[in-house]
Amino acid sequence: MQVLEAIPLPGEEFNRCLAQNIDNIVASILRSLGDMDIQPIIDALVQYDPTRRSASVFNDLARYRADTMETHRPNLPAFPTETILRALDWLRSQAPTMDEKA
To answer: Does pTM surpass 0.85?
Structure first.
């Protein structure tokens, strides 16, 4: 069995690699969301953004989901919304221009 070893990347190369893969990294983080019900997500968004703007936008986007969709078991690994928000904050601190690429 072959063991993979981490290869340290110089700062500039790491930043370039991060920028090239930012969309995939964000998608991977979001896929690990364990909360399937709307209310725990809204509660976490209110704690994260006291203006409640994020929670309001999410609520508007998910308004019809609660009545029409059955939730499923979360994909593993599954983390609470608070953890996902912290991961995205950390990623944003590493790649401050991540919001520019979509």
So the answer is: no
